[in-house]
Amino acid sequence: MSPLRSSTWWDDPGKAGFIARHHMRQLGLTRDQLRGKPVVGICNSWSELTPCNAHLRTLAESVRRGITAAGGLALEFPTMSIGEPLMRPTSMMFRNLMSMDVEETIRANPLDAVVLLGGCDKTLPAQLMGAASVDLPAIALSGGPMLTGRFRGKTVGSGTDIWKMSEDLRAKRITQDDFDEFEGCLARSAGHCMTMGTASTMGCLTEALGLSLPAAAALPAADARRAQLAEQSGARAVELAREGLRPSDILTRQAFTNAVVVNAAIGGSTNAVLHLLAIAGRVGVPLALDDIDEIGRRVPLLADLMPSGRFLMEDFAYAGGLPALMAELGDLVDLTAPTVTGRTLGENLAGHQVWDREVIRPLDNPVQSADNGTAVLRGNLAPGGAVLKQSAASPELLHHRGPALVFDSIEEYLRAADDPDLAVDADTVLVVRNLGPRGYPGMPELGNLPLPAKLLAQGVTDMVRISDARMSGTAYGTVVLHVAPEAAAGGPLALVRTGDTVELDVAARTLHLDVDPGELLARRTAWTPPPRPPQSERGWARLYVDRVLQADKGVDLDFLVGRSGDQPGKAPF
Ligand code: FES
Ligand code: MG
């Protein structure tokens, strides 16, 4: 075994070693604790501003127990946290900032390995991005999903049922009192959203990538087995430090292929596309937007989970969770992929089976057949690509031609949405722009635009919507998202006008603006870039807007792509 990285701090014979050691004595540590023990950081995104992660403080105690029992020294540290429900203008604007915090904190300190504790949508991706760039041995564990929501005898799911019930409220099918009661029933335990939204998706993909222990994705936050997983993750991190198994050994092309396959089989969030591209970019594995479509296309939807299906994460866990689903996928996943357990994915999956065939369906009787996952569209309206989640869309709209109704901002659209005289019908293609990474800024989850009240009153439940925004992983509808380049970056989305004909053909993977190329050129010549969004003149927002990459590149900052390694630089003393 090569010397521990942390020994560079502790074993320094001069002033730097003294300073490092004597301040550790403040923690009540004896000098023996600093001799020859792998130091495992517990990278904790606990915060009461991230209610989904609030229990990670307790979970960290289980991780600590595992590290100590395995002969390591546990040092817990906080990083920035990102809470979906509270952060404005949008949580996505801060993912890269958190990834920088994680990366720099890990690199700058005497750590030999790290346990990443995340949960809410952006937290695990940010941690994986940061850890991939440092490439220090790492294992991830999510806080786990909430228990199933129950409202008046019915199962209700995070996000998904909010979108449904708020439409019901707008259409006056339910009262405000009903809605208020529902509010208290939905998030009734610790944990992250328990639909297959972005948090659950990223938990599953982290496991599929091989970076967390088997079964880590689905077990509820409230289940004692999650605390046991935390203890095991801590113990495993100590071994990782000794073995020197690094994220780059695990995050191979095979791992990303497996993650894309799993994303299709679970009906995962469209946000996962951005996160996978960004993580691959950090570790230097070639993964292109089109790979998401090509690899995912041969995979049927097996998990019958909201928003694409009926059940919730708790049901998924009891049905066998992700190991059972991956075992069911058989040769569709690459079983030779290395994982954080030190074993291959195939070895990890041995003995796992499905216990509930309603929740995890067999390959020969899937929820939806192959080629119903996230489609990547291209055309003169999205030369850099766009995505559409087929399993959450209306089949009859997947090939659609209609007149565009265009809005330059979400505010402009929301003001018009309730107008009973709005010139809109079910064939209209709703276009809202300037919702991209630079334009909003931060690419908010607004792509599943609420339907105009006029159409709701007519009983219309879906229409084609196009934007450069994202959509919550818990949302649904025939919505074209992540249009690249975005309008604010001069993408053709900026050139569409109300009345232009737009054609969406998902089977052909095209998104076409039926306007003469000469006319488009004239519009482009007349186009001027919008000014920087308000509040983006200084600080993080300024850096973000100036350096953020487009959706087809994972919305990372251009200078964060790639690895930097674990060398901390010189001691200051
Ligand atoms: Fe945190 Fe949904 S709000 S996971
Ligand atoms: Mg979400």
TrEMBL record:
Q: Which UniProt keywords apply?
A: 2Fe-2S, Amino-acid biosynthesis, Branched-chain amino acid biosynthesis, Iron, Iron-sulfur, Lyase, Metal-binding
Q: What is the lineage of its organism?
A: Bacteria, Bacillati, Actinomycetota, Actinomycetes, Kitasatosporales
- The answer to whether UniProt assigns keyword Nucleotidyltransferase to this entry is no
Record flagged with keyword Iron-sulfur:
yes
Q: What family is this?
A: Belongs to the IlvD/Edd family.
| Name the record gives this protein | Dihydroxy-acid dehydratase
Entry GO MF terms: 2 iron, 2 sulfur cluster binding; hydro-lyase activity; metal ion binding
Which InterPro entries does the UniProt entry name for this protein?
Dihydro-acid_dehy_C (IPR042096), DiOHA_6PGluconate_deHydtase_CS (IPR020558), ILV_EDD_C (IPR056740), ILV_EDD_N (IPR000581), IlvD/EDD_N (IPR037237), Sugar_Degrad_Dehydratases (IPR052352)
Instruction: Tell me a GO biological process for this protein.
Output: branched-chain amino acid biosynthetic process
Matching SUPFAM superfamilies: IlvD/EDD N-terminal domain-like, LeuD/IlvD-like
Highest taxon, organism lineage: Bacteria
Q: What residues does the Dihydroxy-acid/6-phosphogluconate dehydratase C-terminal domain cover?
A: 358-554
Q: Where is the Dihydroxy-acid/6-phosphogluconate dehydratase N-terminal domain?
A: 37-348
